[in-house]
User: Fold this.
Amino acid sequence: MQKFKPTLLSLSVLSALSPSVFAEETTEAESQEPLYEHVIEEQTWGLAGVVRSASVPYVNALELDDSERVNTFIPMLYFENEHVYVKGLMGGVYLYNPEDSDWNVSALGRLRFVDIPAEIQNEFGADAFDFGLRGEYQYSDEWFAYSELMTEKDGNWHINFGTEGEYFVGDFQIQPHASLRYKSEDFNTQYYGLNAEKVDAGVDAFVGVRASYHVVSNLYLLGAANVQILDNAAYDAAVIDNRVQTEYYLGFGFFNDKDKPRKTELSNKRYFRISHGWGTPSNLGDILAGDIEDDPYNSQITTLFYGHPLTDELFGLPLDIYLTPGFGWHWSHENQASSQEYILAIKAYYTISWPFDWRLGVAEGMSYTSKINSLEKEEFDRKGYEPNNFLNYLDFSIDVNLGSMFNARSMDGVWLGYAIHHRSAIFEKSSQYGRIKGGSNYNTITLTVDF
Assistant:
């Protein structure tokens, strides 16, 4: 199969999912027409970027000058309906969520920061991913309580009990919260003894507040301040220097405009997108400039994405915004075994109707691979980094509507295009991505079908 290599590309463009269904009255003459039509309402969604600054509780054994605090940049996705939710650092699936109940139960996963100095995060590893069960009870109009049973990949478990409120004051949304966390002996030994000494079980405490400010239209400013107080067992560990840890968040995001009623019907439709692409050692800037180097191993990927409409405008502009989960298959070759990639992103499209319908798209999200592909392995080996399976995801695309191009009404919802499939770690600025620089790129041919 010949590799696909575009020679000219310049792109600069600026979350189980269920539709609502309505019935229309029909006349007798229309009795052969479908009585129901699928309608997507405007969804609860958001896309944000924040900087987190946290104090380091560990002893400064390496005497690193800037190890008192560790900073990281965090892209965040938000989406919620009656079945699933994605809220920044956590996401889940509702197992019990009746409309008329104050209770809900969900299975969830959440990123947990382990704040060792930035200089050694790539070498020793840092952030962890916890998963488990969460139950919530809404005990007043403003407050709910929750409990969680969580574990991580090595089976070290902890239990959380907390409460959280929500208040609106003008353009401010304020969310105070407090919680207790019971940590097993194994958990404390792993994360506060660093497996060098046994640390007994204990209970630590958290208190803090999150806030957002509605600036204008879909733009919001975000901030948070939290305090963690360690239990005696953890604090007495030889590698722990501070009982109290602080963290601050500051950033901005795009969310539903709180001053506008939600649209009851969106103009953009769901879609499926299938693509096949070829890897390149070239970086993103070189690809956009048309300077694309061949991969000697001919790395290839096949992906399938589903697009779920979130809204059809942003800041009053006609931008189609989608939540787009995806799955990728990295094909085996002499330098790598086959592997799987799991993606969740928010994508925006801008359509231009001259001389026919075509559109530019950009997506931001997260990607996890079951194995490190050869493009990333070779680059990270060359730069002296430990690779990371979890990375940031970007997608840049250009599509043409075949129905518009060929004046064929039956093909109006079919788009043929090109996209860059990009994984990277945001220039060593993100501890959740392993504090590394680099990634992988694939040039892909895409076929998108609206429905």
Remarks:
- Residues 374-383 form the longest helix (10 residues).
- The longest strand covers residues 202-216.
- The chain has two domains: 44-255, 262-450.
